[in-house]
Design the sequence.
């Protein structure tokens, strides 16, 4: 008797153009690299990131002058102090890069930017503006995992981005493909429930999981039955769907098989992190635990974390815990409580660095191969809109943390690239192309081009070769 | 062999050369066993070996050593060689030719080898959009094809628009609520379908459901099912009426279908009959049919188990989800029913026919009358189809909807029309909506051009909206439609109100201006307003509710200065003042029309600081009656929307424009750029694009293809990449810079070079039309007279309405549609009726 599995395999062999989402292919056992997986964490913030706050205070006068004139130079971070707000990551200085001088004028800039900073195009609320998969998804597809990619977000309370349901699963800031926004988990609670339901001890969650399992089983069976009645291309049209359902089941199965390791790494979250009404900083800490659990357990290799957005109304900030800080107002220079706008910005960044320190420290504590998990990890911290609140994308500062096995040769340096419009200037597109090329995607250029640079006849395609 | 075919042959051979080279290094691919049958080998030896044998290896290709090639290379060679043989591209025309039987013999063997190795055959490839023109045009319209038309039995994935309508059907929404939700969408429903961004027909029956669709549908099904049950849950007290998980997501249908409600409200487990009734209800909502007995049996079992595990509400909801996940919800099923005819064809069942017709004409399923016709067996003959199609085309309401809701934003509301699908054909065929995807450096335009951004579609949005209006007008007239689309020299620009309303507005404005212009309106505005209050209210310059006239000073003065700039200079003002809230009209320059006064000219008119401008710019004399003639433009190919859609970010694109004309209007083919070619136009400070293009494409191997594009596209160099007519080309190169812009968003000034806009038309098959052209307008006039162009448009209409490429067996259908067009004096509706009552749509095989 022809089993469904055998039938689907036969269908797959004979039908052309079968398409599975890459993570579904993964679930079916697509080839993976034999070495330890590579991991990527994209942490982006709203309200801009001032280039001037990125500069080590101990630069020589010559370098300070270059910095002020936006002239290219590079120094070894170990010979310099970090800006004060970065002090919590000082221990990771040798793995850290402060990268200045990239531009992103081909992105939507200003207040809200949707998928722009990760996709390098002008995205907005219209789905049609999403031109292709964002860079985090490209990487996730290169390093497959059962869940492929996870996006966590501290959604804005107001403004132009996905909003309304801070605690739900809403359109995020990454994109799976053209016109396909990704969905992000808004709260640690919903992320915990959805991502870890296979190992949940909660009776209601277990029932829900079992019901969903049965629905998938039923649907897979019925669709396979339909596929068996037709042939050729027509069979592919249904068999492909049936196989995708089976792939989800296989993924779930795989997660169930990983249940021991998932249980071992289950996020240990106090009740306050699982509340519906939690402060922004607690939301960030809770998400950080989820991020770590999913990476360490191997459920995913890529996590994108919207740590805040321009429309975020911050609560829980150090020193002004009881204030509800509207980041948009901060962008316009308004202070809250005892802090002025600049101090709030610094407090926010300091909080972000504390989160990063936690992530890196924890990953370093997990042995992997002859080292630790962080060896195979890169973390990117950057603004979603460029250099300031009302940004134009003329600068797009990054802080990068690269593990020992990272493919980019940038660790431990402060790098200022040639300024926009100057010979040798590099864009976000060049930067992501570098990343993709270095990890094995030979794409000629990732991202839109800057039409103003095009007018200047600047070559703006390809990787930043000195980084590879 | 015609030139296109020659080019295709050379390209293929060059490509094969690459494969051969690759083959030699792909050692990991082990050649499978293959034996070339003797009779096939004999044909290859006789007709091919002379050029592609051991000694000659023309284009470095050998066909005498297929068996020795590694598998991948061999299959690639076979695939391409099959195309050459079948399309008659090889052997060259001046060489001896194999008979039809010999061609068939070789082709069949090639196909069997490909199929054996799970490689797409030519037959598979011919279904792809880019193979649409491969079927011989002359043969299609020769009248000599005797094969009977049919469409392969198929599942056809629903379009994004049909998906939306199906979700509306699930909730059984009607009337205004349906119209509103169609535009607004549902918070928890993501459309899983995206059509490709190509110029030309985009909605084919080729796409298969995949994992991405499934992922989206899993989320959709959860949301939809929860909303289907919400009203019943509230009634039962499981939820409070104002209890929402997300305050932003507070829509739900007012009622839950009775069969569902019955189960939700029960305190004990439902009976199998009750569950069966709920299954039937969900099938009706989602699949718009009754479940079969077998389906009911399976679904009842599933639901019963789920209810045991999760309770009535949750168990029932799982059933709703499962039906929503049926692939049938996402496909159009067209398999036919009943006994086959003598040609092996089966007619669509009346139900299938009803859906096929309705989805061809719109996005909704059949209306009540069409359903009734199907139920009563009145949807069987061509006459039945014709009657229903004509009836639905005459119906101004059933499919009435906006042409493209994605245009809607702060400033634009897409035109609502009775049959948006017909407009969509023209949009896709011409591809002008792609203008919104081409990002421009605004300062190059002098600052007037606005790219799409948050909440609006910018200048290209307006241009597309105006092109839509042009198309709607042509389709409404339904007279010599193709020729009109190509040559009508009257356009819609800033057409914000109909002619009657526009006339009335201008009349009242003029009366106001004439009555007031000689008064002390600049110095004593409140007195003047008071004196002429009624007139100014009638002219909508003053708010009738106003009690304090000083508050209206700004509005009044703005209008008066605006009138002074326009009426005062003997010109008609645009029927909306630039100082009004939300004004966003800045794109008239894309039509090479004069500008209109900008908002800044009237800022602070109400204050003593206001300085009246002394200049008297030549503003556009606004034509209230539209469409109106614009010099140096004819039809959609000179519409800025089309010109921008077929341009580069910073320059025109003669290659793309030429390719479009070759493929869409002349039914020709131009191969894709070979992967070995780095297609770059060299930069040069002193040369025009035409000159630089010549440098890049004049080499023999390039010109073989480019000769079919460049001479067509270069005629359009009379327009720049913003769609503006030009007589000189600005040499936008840093070394040709004369002056940087002084204004913040101004354009830099570069040296210019004289513009040449000559071109050459070849491929109409009509010696009186082919030949050198002086410019795009000359070319367009000739294209509009061409039979081949008319037939090419009809071929594309066939693809649009039937969702597939035409086959030779569709010959009669195309001939009939062409005849319908000609005999009706150029009615596109006649073409639609003909296509949708043809045997091509009626029969499946």
Sequence:
């Amino acid at each position: 008797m022809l089993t469904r599995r055998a039938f689907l395999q036969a269908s797959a062999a004979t039908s052309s153009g079968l398409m599975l989402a890459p993570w579904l292919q993964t679930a079916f056992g697509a080839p993976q690299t034999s070495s330890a997986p590579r991991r990527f964490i994209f942490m982006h913030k709203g309200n801009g990131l001032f280039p001037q706050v990125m500069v080590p205070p101990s630069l020589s006068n010559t370098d300070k002058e270059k910095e002020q004139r936006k002239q290219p130079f590079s120094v070894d971070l170990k010979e310099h102090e970090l800006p004060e707000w970065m002090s919590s990551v000082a221990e990771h200085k040798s793995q850290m890069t402060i990268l200045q001088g990239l531009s992103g004028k081909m992105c939507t800039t200003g207040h809200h930017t949707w998928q722009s900073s990760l996709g390098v195009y002008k995205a907005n609320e219209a789905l049609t503006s999403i031109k292709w998969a964002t860079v985090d998804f490209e990487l996730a597809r290169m390093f497959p995992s059962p869940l492929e990619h996870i996006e966590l977000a501290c959604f804005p309370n107001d403004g132009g981005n996905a909003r309304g349901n801070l605690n739900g699963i809403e359109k995020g800031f990454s994109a799976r493909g053209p016109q396909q926004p990704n969905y992000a988990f808004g709260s640690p609670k919903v992320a915990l429930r959805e991502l870890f339901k296979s190992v949940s001890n909660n009776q209601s969650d277990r029932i829900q999981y079992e019901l969903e399992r049965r629905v998938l089983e039923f649907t897979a069976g019925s669709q396979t039955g339909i596929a068996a009645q037709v042939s050729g291309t027509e069979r592919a049209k249904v068999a492909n769907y049936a196989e995708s359902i089976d792939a989800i089941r296989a993924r779930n199965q795989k997660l169930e098989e990983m249940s021991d390791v998932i249980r071992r790494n289950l996020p240990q979250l106090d009740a306050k992190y699982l509340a519906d009404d939690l402060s922004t900083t607690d939301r960030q800490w809770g998400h950080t635990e989820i991020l770590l659990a999913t990476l360490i357990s191997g459920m995913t290799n890529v996590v994108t974390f919207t740590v805040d957005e321009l429309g975020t109304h911050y609560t829980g900030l150090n020193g002004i815990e009881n204030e509800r800080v509207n980041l948009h107002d901060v962008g316009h220079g308004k202070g809250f409580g005892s802090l002025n706008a600049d101090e709030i910005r610094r407090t926010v960044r300091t909080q972000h660095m504390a989160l990063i320190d936690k992530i890196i420290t924890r990953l370093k504590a997990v042995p992997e191969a002859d080292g630790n998990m962080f060896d195979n990890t890169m973390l990117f911290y950057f603004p979603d809109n460029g250099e300031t609140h009302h940004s134009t994308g003329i600068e797009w500062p990054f802080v990068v943390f690269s593990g020992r096995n990272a493919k980019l040769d940038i660790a431990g340096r402060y790098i200022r690239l040639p300024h926009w419009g100057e010979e040798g200037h590099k864009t976000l597109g060049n930067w992501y192309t570098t990343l993709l090329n270095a990890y094995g995607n030979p794409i000629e250029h990732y991202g839109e081009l800057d039409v103003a640079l095009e007018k200047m006849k600047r070559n703006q395609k390809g990787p930043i070769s000195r980084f590879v | 062999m015609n030139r296109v075919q020659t080019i295709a042959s050379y390209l293929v051979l060059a490509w094969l050369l690459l494969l051969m080279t690759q083959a030699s290094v792909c050692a990991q691919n082990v050649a499978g066993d293959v034996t070339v049958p003797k009779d096939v080998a004999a044909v290859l030896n006789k007709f091919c070996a002379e050029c592609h044998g051991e000694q000659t290896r023309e284009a470095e290709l050998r066909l005498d050593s297929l068996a020795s090639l590694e598998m991948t290379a061999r299959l690639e060679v076979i695939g391409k060689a099959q195309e050459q043989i079948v399309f008659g591209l090889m052997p060259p025309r001046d060489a001896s030719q194999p008979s039809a039987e010999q061609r068939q013999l070789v082709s069949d063997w090639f196909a069997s080898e490909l199929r054996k190795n799970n490689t797409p055959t030519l037959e598979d490839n011919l279904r792809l959009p880019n193979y649409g023109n491969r079927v011989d045009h002359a043969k299609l319209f020769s009248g000599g094809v005797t094969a009977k038309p049919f469409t392969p039995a198929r599942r056809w994935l629903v379009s994004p628009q049909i998906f939306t309508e199906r979700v509306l059907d699930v909730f059984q929404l009607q009337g205004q609520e349906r119209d509103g939700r169609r535009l607004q969408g549902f918070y928890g429903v993501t459309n899983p379908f995206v059509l490709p961004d190509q110029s030309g027909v985009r909605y084919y029956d080729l796409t298969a459901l995949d994992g991405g669709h499934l992922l989206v549908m899993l989320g959709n099904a959860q949301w939809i099912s929860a909303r289907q049950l919400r009203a019943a849950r509230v009634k039962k007290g499981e939820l409070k009426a104002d209890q929402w998980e997300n305050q932003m997501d507070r829509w739900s249908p007012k009622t839950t279908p009775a069969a569902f409600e019955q189960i939700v409200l029960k305190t004990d487990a439902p009976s199998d009959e009750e569950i069966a009734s709920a299954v039937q209800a969900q099938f009706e909502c989602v699949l718009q049919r009754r479940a079969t007995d077998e389906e009911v049996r399976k679904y009842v079992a599933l639901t019963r188990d789920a209810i045991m595990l999760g309770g009535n509400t949750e168990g029932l909801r799982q059933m709703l989800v499962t039906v929503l996940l049926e692939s049938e919800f996402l496909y159009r099923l067209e398999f036919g029913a009943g006994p086959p005819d003598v040609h092996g064809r089966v007619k669509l069942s009346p139900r299938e026919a009803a859906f096929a017709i309705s989805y061809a004409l719109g996005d909704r399923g059949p209306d009540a009358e069409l359903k009734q016709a199907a139920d009563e067996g009145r949807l069987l003959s061509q006459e039945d189809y014709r009657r229903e199609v004509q009836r639905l085309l005459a119906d101004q309401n059933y499919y009435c909807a906006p042409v493209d809701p994605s245009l809607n934003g702060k400033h634009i509301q897409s035109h609502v029309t009775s049959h948006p699908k017909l407009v969509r054909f023209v949009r896709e065929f011409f591809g002008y909506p792609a203008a919104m995807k081409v990002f421009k450096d605004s300062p190059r335009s002098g600052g007037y051009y606005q790219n799409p951004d948050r909440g609006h579609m910018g200048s290209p949005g307006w241009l597309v909206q105006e092109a839509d209006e042009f198309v709607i007008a042509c389709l409404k007239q339904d007279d010599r439609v193709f020729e009109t689309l190509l040559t009508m020299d009257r356009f819609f620009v800033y057409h914000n109100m109909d002619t009657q309303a526009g006339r009335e507005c201008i009349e009242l404005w003029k009366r106001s201006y004439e009555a007031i212009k000689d008064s002390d309106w600049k110095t004593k505005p409140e007195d003047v307003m008071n004196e002429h209050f009624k007139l100014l209210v009638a002219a909508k310059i003053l708010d009738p509710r106003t009690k304090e006239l000083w508050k209206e000073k700004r509005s009044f003065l703005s209008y008066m200065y605006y009138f002074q700039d326009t009426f005062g200079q003997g010109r008609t003002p645009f029927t909306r003042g630039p100082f009004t809230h939300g004004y966003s009209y800045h794109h008239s320059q894309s039509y090479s029309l004069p500008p209109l006064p900008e908002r800044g000219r009237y800022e602070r008119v109400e204050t003593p600081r206001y300085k009246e401008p002394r200049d008297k710019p030549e503003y556009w004399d606004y034509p209230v009656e539209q469409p109106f003639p614009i010099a140096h433009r004819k039809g959609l190919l000179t519409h800025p929307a089309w010109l921008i859609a077929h341009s580069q970010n910073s320059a025109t694109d003669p290659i793309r424009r030429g390719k479009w004309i070759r493929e869409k209007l002349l039914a020709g083919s131009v191969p894709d750029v070979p992967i070995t070619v780095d297609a770059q136009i060299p930069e040069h400070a002193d040369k025009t694009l035409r000159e630089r293009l010549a440098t890049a494409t004049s080499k023999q191997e390039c010109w073989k293809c480019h000769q079919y594009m460049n001479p067509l596209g270069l005629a359009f160099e009379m327009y720049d990449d913003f769609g503006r007519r030009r007589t000189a080309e600005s040499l936008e190169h840093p070394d040709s810079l004369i002056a940087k812009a002084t204004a913040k968003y101004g354009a830099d000034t570069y040296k210019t070079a004289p513009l040449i806009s000559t071109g050459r038309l070849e491929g109409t098959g009509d010696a009186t039309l082919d030949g050198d052209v002086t410019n795009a307008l000359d070319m367009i006039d000739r294209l509009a007279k061409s039979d081949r162009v008319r037939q090419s448009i009809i071929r594309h209409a066939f693809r649009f309405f039937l969702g597939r490429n035409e086959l030779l067996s569709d010959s009669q259908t195309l001939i009939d549609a062409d005849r319908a067009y000609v005999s009706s004096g150029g009615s596109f509706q006649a073409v639609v009726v003909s296509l949708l009552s043809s045997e091509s749509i009626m029969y499946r095989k």
Notes: The first helix of chain B runs from residue 3 to 25. The longest strand of chain B covers residues 154-157. Chain B touches chain A through 60 residues (CB under 8 Å). The CA atoms of residues 204 and 804 of chain B lie 5 Å apart.
